[in-house]
Structures are given as structure tokens and as C-alpha cells.
Amino acid sequence: MKKNILYLGIAVIIGLLGGYLLFGNSTESTGQAGDNHDHPEASANQMWTCSMHPQIMQPEPGDCPICGMDLIPAETGAEGLAANEIKMTENALALANIQTSIVGSIATSDEDGMISLSGKIAENEENNAVQASYFEGRLERLNVSYEGQKVNKGQLLATIYAPNLVAAQQELITAASLKESQPALYSAVRNKLKLWKLSEKQISSIETSGKVRENFPIYATVSGTVAMVMAAEGDYVKQGQPILKVSNLNSVWAEFDAYENQISQFKKGQKINVTTNAYPNKKFDAVITFIDPVLNNRTRTVTVRTTLKNKENLFKPGMFVTGKIKGTMQNLEESLSIPASAILWTGERSLVYVKTNPNEAVFEMREVTIGIRNGDNYTITTGLENGDEIVTNGTFTVDAAAQLQGKKSMMNKSGGRTTTGHEGHTEMQGAITENKPNSVSMMKMKLPQAFQSGFQSAIEPYLKMKDAFVSSDASQVSAFAKTTSDKLNAIGVSDLGKMEKSHFSKSIEMLDAISTNPDLEKQRAYLVVLNENMVALAMNIQSPTDTLYVQKCPMANSNKGAIWLSTEKEIKNPYYGDAMLTCGSVIETIN
Q1: Mind giving me the DSSP string for 518-529?
Q2: pLDDT tens digits for range 382-402
Q3: Hey, which CATH number is domain 126-247, 2.40.50.100, 3.10.100.10, 1.10.10.10, 3.20.20.140?
Q4: The whole model's pTM is what?
């Protein structure tokens, strides 16, 4: 019995020793592997960023110092990408509302090669007439006193007191008694009254009655609609001074704006189909009767005009119309059409972002050559192929991501490495900033000294307009926009280059749009484009009178970001006012 117990004890000891030898090392290995898994080397390099402010980069999680949102892990790498490709996360795509579409030829579009032009109905100036006073005097009564009033030929327009006419009547009465002895004098006096547009009946009435009339009527010499009242009762008018402007609306002009790159598509006599918002189911056939030989330097457009018959009074001056014209461009089927929202324009280059991987959010910048503009689309002559997938919404966001990753971008032709600044901002290698901290890249321009001085005089009303945006005061915004536009219009631009003129004319165009639009939200939409051009010019001022700060809100402009100028470092956001007054940061200082 004792011997059996001894054998059993030895067997247990041998089993325990074998188990330790078999499983002990495995457990230790597992523990070591577990330690390695809990502390991967990659986590030491993990950076955290803000989805709304991608310039923020921090080595640990926390809150965004600008908007207070929770930081999210930044993408640490993108393997398998070409040198100038960028990759975005699905979360980033959703936040920026980035949309893409497939490039197609014009021949497959709904327009079927038709060029669409926007325009307005205008008075036919060939049918306009000015009703003037034929003698000097005081308007005692004005029978036609408001615009739009119908006037018929021979209708009484006004009654006038004319001292000279009183004297001429007395001469007629005296000459009538001497007409047998002095017929030449009598005839001269009658002709004098005829030149003052008195009828034979009126002259004979004065002669036979022998009475002098103090007040004389003025009759309409044409029929039409009053386009402008140019005098008021009690006014003292001179001989030949206009009283009314009368427009015959039996025919009107439809005037369209054609872009500079569309001019070659039009010629006189070309057929055009006109539609209006008032009568969307009616089409009016016409032909081009006039193409303005002078290009509008402000809008870079020419006026294309057609004449429309208007005997039924369907067309009203000021009415918006659309014209459809079959372009004369050859090889139209070989051209591609893309939305205007897909194109980034720097003044020298036109860029789009192409999705290079159909299954992943991988994009690459590509330069293109644009042709004519057709409504909200551009034709592309080089740079894209039929079937390419391009970004059509959120293009600026993709470009910003490319800048942050050091890839080629709108303002950076060659690309460059990005790093983190001291305050979480991004240092970008730009066209003129040369790696200065917290900078924004802008095209280098040559601005004459006289232009720079004139431009600086417009900064003061611009800043007042910006403050009005901060206060959300639309009426003050309009007033200061008008003042800024007037200041810029006073500057001579003959010495500017093509790109400089483009930024300058676009600035004036946006200021005029802001000043004439009372809707604050639309004013702020125009402000985005205005600032892109104003900042580009301001960045090239050599010695500004005051230090200017270029500030940016990445959430404005539908999360595409928007910039503005300020003389104060403190952020006062003009795009949101009190709603998000401090959202933004200083990205450039102009000393």
C-alpha cells in the first residue's frame, strides 16, 4: 500500500513538472505579446485634429482651442498613394458634403449644345422720344406726372406761363393791323410763333380775338409710355429743356451678357430663342441684331441684343429673360462639360480635383483648359477625359486638405511639407510667403505705386462695411459697399496686368452686388468672393498705412472656409455676427 502511494506521488510530481515546461513559456510569451499590443509604437506618433479647423494639430486628445469641439485622430499615413494624391476619410467627406460626378460630353447634356445666356428686357431706345419745352417759362400745371402713364399724340401734357410768348402775341396783334402795309413783318411774326410749335389754329385764334393769353398748353408730339418725368409743377424751365421721356414699347430689346470666351460663338443674324420667368411655357423666336463692339472691363462681358415685338405688352422693361443659342463652335461633340463649381481659378490656372480610385476617397489635382461658359457649366478642351470622376461640391475643402498634406494645391504649384506651428496653426510653403509661420499663400502681383495708394484709400470704407456685417446691419453694409466701390472706381487701372485687373474688377462687381442687394445672407455670400479678391490685392501692397490681419473662419461658406481683412487681431466674424462672433483665427499679417 505504501509503495503504491509513493508511485502515485512521483507521477503527480512528474505531471506538474511537465505541465510547467509545456505551458509556462507560452504564458510568458502571451503576456509579453499582450504588453506589446497595449502599447504599440504607432500610438506614440498619433496626432489629434479638429474636424472644423484642420490646422489644429496636437499630440494628445482634448478640445479644439478655436471652437471647443472634441479633437479626432488625424490620419497618420496614406500608403500606396501617388506623390500628389490625397486620401480623405469617410467622416471628412460627410462633414464637408463633398460630392463628385462623372464628366460627360456636351452632346449628351440636356442642352444639346445650346448656349444659355441671361439677360433683361430693356426699352428700345430707337423708339424713345423726349418731350421738351419749346419756350422758356414756368410750369403752371403738369397733366402727366408719373412713370408708366400712357400718352397719345396730341394729348395735353402741361400748361406753361411764358413771358416771351406773351410779348410775341402782342407783336402778332400789332402786325395783324399792319399786314396790308407790311406783309413781310406780319409773316415773320407768324413764323416765329410756328417755331414755338403753336398750331395755325392757335395763331389765328390769337389774331382774331386780339387778346393775349398768359398760359399756353404743351401737347404730346408722339404716342407711348412715360419712362421718366423730368420736371415738376412750379419748375422754371428753359427753352429746349426736357419735361418727359416717352418710350414706345411696341418693340423692346432683350439684352444678354455674354462672357469674353463666348464672343466667338455669336454673330449678327443668328437665331435665338427667348423665354421669360413670367411666361415659362412660351418661347419667342428672334435673331441677334447687335453685338457690342466694346468689352465691359468690370464684368468681362459684352452685350448681345435682339429686338422683340411687343404689341401685346407681354414684355416689361427690367424683366429677366433667358436666351438659347446654338453655338458656332466646331467639334462640339469632342468637348466635355463640367459644372462651374468644380473649377478652382487662380487667375493663371484652372484646376479640378479628380477622384483617381473609384472605391476610395483618393483625389488628385489636375490643371484644365476651359472653353466657353454655358449657363452654370464650362466646356473643357484639355485636361480631362470622358468618364473621369471629379469633385463638384466641396472643391475648396479638398484643396485645403491637399495644402495641409503638403501636396500640390491651388496656391502651391510644387507642393511642400507641412508642419505644426506653435499655436496649432499650419505653416504652408506658398508662392510668396516662403514658409513664414501662420501664413496664407497668394499669387505674386505687380501693383503700380499709384494703384497701391488708391487701393489703401478704399480700405477704410471696406473696414466699416466689415463692421456692419459683424453688426448684421444690411442697410449700413449696402452704404459702405457703395462707398468702397466708388473709391475703387476712382483708381486708374490701365497699368495693371491681366490677373491684377481680374481681381480688381471682380472686387468692384461684388461690392456693387452687395450695395444693391438688401438681403443680408446674400450680401454675405457676395462677401466671400469679394474677400478672396480684396485679400489677394492687399497681400501685394508694399507699405500699407495700417497693419492688416488676414483672418479666416473655416466654418463659413458651407464649411469651405472664408477670409477677410481687419486692423485688429481680435476676431469679429463678419459671416455670422453674434451667432459665432469669435470663430476664426489670424492666418497672415500684412505689415
Answers
A1: --HHHHHHHHHH
A2: 888 888 899 988 888 888 877
A3: 2.40.50.100
A4: 0.41
